[in-house]
Amino acid sequence: MLLELEHIYKEYRQDQLAVPALTNVSLSLDKGEYLAIMGPSGSGKSTLMNIIGCLDRPTSGSYRLDGVDVLSLNDNQLSEIRCHKIGFVFQSFQLLSTETALHNVMLPLSFAGVPRSARRDIAARALARVGLADRLDFLPNQLSGGQKQRVAIARALVNDPQLILADEPTGALDQKSGAAVMDLFEQLNAEGVTVVVITHDGGVGSRARRMLHIVDGEIIEHKAGLPELTEEQPQ
Amino acid sequence: MLENIRNSLRGIWSHKLRSLLTILGVIIGIASIIAIVSIVEGTNQKLEKSLIGSGNNVATVSLSQNGWYYDASAGLPAGVPMMTRIELDRIGQLAGVEAVTAYVSRQAWNAVFYLDRPLSYGTVYGIADDFFGTMQYSVARGRNFTEEEYNKGFKVAIIDGNAADSLFYGEDPLGEIIEIQQEPFEVVGVIRDDNAGEKEEYQSINDYYMYGWESGQGRVFVPERAWPIIYQFDEPRSVGLRVTDTKDMAPLGKRAADILNENVTNPDIRYSAGNSEEYADDLKTLTNAIRLMLVSIASLSLLVGGIGVMNIMLVSVTERTAEIGLKKALGAKRRTILTQFLTESAVLTSTGGILGVAVGIGLAKLISVVANLPFGVNVPWLLIAVGFSMAIGLIFGAMPASRAARLDPIEALRRE
């Protein structure tokens, strides 16, 4: 079991008021799965993603990632986990605008302590894997949105993580390049990479092999293959 | 680390104007420190040269009363026996002493005339035949006194270049008659001080004050045996000694004074070494104190510069919140972020330090030419300056860097 979340409860403090974001989330995920977590904005899905991504801690509950009790780790150890086990893909790409595609992809390698001499080759291979072998020395503003997101995916892949965690990966893309990015996730999953996509877009969610809905901080699971008619569209 | 430094340099270069303005305070501070140190160092070198002379190694020991030069016109004081060959030989046998001589001397105010031209300030010496050799003067023109002239006290005189200029206005002094205390003396030679590197040459700080800036200075030498003709018998003698190593001047001068003082019973009067090196050291202590003060003031501008750097680093952290958040999400540790920003501010201020050193060297060069001072910049000070500016970057970069390192990645990523 790669992810085991049990009875996750998370609240935010606003002034004196406790605002619950997640009320009772339990979730487990095997290696090699492709999961979509869906929900409208404000449903708590970003909070869940931050917790899965070891960027935030739940108020209560337990979370094991690859057998490690994440909640007992300190700040440095969490950095290690993010570095080696999780690859992030963000809605707005989050590429460093002054660095080339290659250098953006090399960034996580430097945090992982990979020797300088080896970084270039590893990063170039990751970029080739997402189909950008001919764009190594392009700056982000010389690339299309879809290409930028593929650079970001290469960056997420470069440290060979256990898990790719994508937050609205097609949110800033047009229909066509969004579909290409989803094709890429599918291809990577077929190659054995575990993928978790967080989205409010039913079309994106339906590409996953397994789908969860999160509503008001609680999870409703849909098995793949079931009809998607019950899905709530954001207003 | 190398990578961090390279990235920092790239960042500085991409914000050229902002970086330059940020480090201006550091540049000015370092440049003024370098310039100040150079001026003080140059002044010290010049003092040393004009007071001691380069490679001079002659010390003099004279009578002093309560710390002042004893006035020779009062004659040999009570409780001070006449100096004899015995003491001189003992001094001459001290290790490190090459030669020793005894002489009498008087400050001469209008005591020496050629026709109606006075030598308004000068010194008249009564010397023995070992004087010129010991003091390292050589006869430039004319001749030395003969043995007979020394032994019988002939009325002959040797003058130095300054006295020749003052009395003869460039005419040939050889064979001319000058008056010393109304007694006629024939000028037989002109001497040159082999040690005097510069135009002026002072035997002591008193000389420097007494006639350093007066015209009409000069020295007139007569055989000691002729001294009673112009002054009196039994005047106190001084000792000149040449040492092998300049560093030994002060200690050997003191030992010589100690030997002479063994026979002195008058509690107010002592022999003491009039060592110009000591006076130069006193002056150097003063200039060093001035240097400390000026450097402290210049350091204030470094402090202000440091605060400017802290300010701009805080701005930079705020600007790059998203970048920091991203890096943390991608697995950068706090220490990694901390190092990145500390390196950046240290590289920034070190750049300022290096530029400041360059400007400071330029300033020092300019001042040394304009003020006719030696160029006193030395490498240790340059290294200290650059190291110091780097330390400023580390100190004032610490707060912004730790703020960056503690940024919450969720907050930071959301901020975009």
What features would you describe in this structure?
The complex is a heterodimer of chains A (235) and B (416). With 235 residues, chain A is of the alpha/beta class. Chain A has a domain at 3-95 and 161-222: Rossmann fold, CATH 3.40.50.300. Chain A is 33% helix and 27% strand. Chain A is built from seven helices and ten strands. Chain A has helices at 45-52, 75-85, 101-111, 116-129, 145-157, 175-190, 202-205; strands at residues 3-14, 17-29, 34-38, 60-65, 68-69, 86-89, 163-167, 194-199, 210-215, 218-222. In chain A, the strands form two sheets. A six-stranded mixed sheet of chain A has the order 6-7-8-3-9-10, with helices on both faces. Chain A has a four-stranded antiparallel sheet with strand order 2-1-4-5, with helices on one face. In chain A, α4 (116-129) packs across α5 (145-157) and α5 (145-157) runs parallel beside α6 (175-190). The longest helix of chain A has 16 residues, at 175-190. The radius of gyration of chain A is 18 Å and the shape is globular. Mean pLDDT of chain A is 88; it is low at 225-235. With 416 residues, chain B is of the alpha+beta class. Chain B folds into two domains: 2-50 and 282-414, no CATH class; 58-244, no CATH class. In chain B, 54% of the residues lie in helices and 18% in strands. Chain B contains 14 helices and 13 strands. In chain B, strands 1, 2, 3, 4, 5, 6, 7, 8, 9, 10, 11, 12 and 13 form a 13-stranded mixed sheet that branches. In chain B, a hairpin with a 2-residue loop joins β1 (58-65) and β2. In chain B, α1 (2-14) packs across α12 (334-370) and α12 runs antiparallel to α13. The longest helix of chain B is centred in the last third of the chain and has 44 residues, at 276-319. The two termini of chain B are 28 Å apart. Chains A and B meet through α2 and α3 of A and α11, α12 and α14 of B.
